[in-house]
């Protein structure tokens, strides 16, 4: 019975953790874009985003990560033989990358707070896709285990990355064109 409790709360932790990671970097994007606003809006927005980032990271994202890891350890104590399986080693490698991403977000948050972040909003949009790729890989490994069709999976993940990159580029182009149209509509004095 302990296995099912650990698994249930592991899944809850994953959902909370990823929700936090997805929204956190989205806040970073808005935080960086606030620099394009005139004062006093710039300062108001940056202060608000900073507060939201800190709360999201501390109250949702980090607890979600801790629950996920704690419940994973619980799962492993109920089934220690799974540690000998190759799929789990690959999955754990992705989890380590995800933990690194989580902590890198904290670093970016501190840089934004000090106005030292060098990332553009477009670069942050690309960074925001990293947990999606890791989530897909982790879920596929957890579901298929050693029967994962690696050829199809590699191509699917590669296709997903290309699609995400294209979407980010198209969105950036759309924003640039919208901004140019807006500037062209402003009456010249």
Kindly describe this structure.
19% of the residues are buried. It is built from 6 helices and no strands. 83% of the residues lie in helices and 0% in strands. It has 189 residues and is mainly alpha-helical. The protein has one domain (2-185). The longest helix is centred in the N-terminal third of the chain and has 38 residues, at 41-78. It is found in: Cell membrane. Its cofactor is heme b. Pathway: Porphyrin-containing compound metabolism; protoporphyrin-IX biosynthesis; protoporphyrin-IX from protoporphyrinogen-IX: step 1/1. Keywords: Cell membrane, Heme, Iron, Membrane, Metal-binding, Oxidoreductase, Transmembrane, Transmembrane helix. Belongs to the HemJ family.
Q: Mind sketching the topology for me?
A:
Layout: H1 2-33, H2 41-78, H3 86-113, H4 121-127, H5 130-144, H6 150-185
Question: Could you give a short description of this structure?
Answer:
With 189 residues, the chain is an all-alpha fold. The chain has helices spanning 2-33, 41-78, 86-113, 121-127, 130-144, 150-185.
């Amino acid at each position: 019975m302990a296995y099912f409790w650990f698994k249930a709360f592991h899944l809850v932790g994953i959902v909370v953790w990823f929700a936090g990671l997805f929204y956190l970097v989205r806040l970073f994007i808005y935080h960086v874009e606030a620099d394009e606003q005139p004062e006093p809006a710039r300062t108001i927005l940056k202060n608000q985003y900073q507060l939201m980032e800190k709360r999201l990271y501390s109250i949702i994202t980090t607890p979600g990560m801790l629950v996920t890891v704690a419940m994973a350890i619980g799962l492993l104590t109920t089934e220690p033989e799974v540690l000998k399986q190759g799929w789990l080693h690959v999955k754990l490698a992705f989890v380590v990358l995800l933990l690194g991403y989580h902590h890198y977000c904290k670093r970016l948050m501190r840089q934004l707070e000090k106005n030292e972040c060098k990332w553009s909003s477009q670069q942050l949009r690309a960074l925001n896709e990293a947990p999606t790729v890791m989530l897909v890989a982790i879920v596929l490994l957890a579901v298929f285990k050693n029967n994962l069709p690696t050829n199809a999976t590699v191509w699917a993940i590669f296709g997903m990355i290309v699609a995400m990159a294209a979407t980010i580029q198209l969105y950036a182009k759309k924003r640039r064109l919208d901004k140019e149209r807006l500037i062209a509509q402003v009456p010249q004095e």
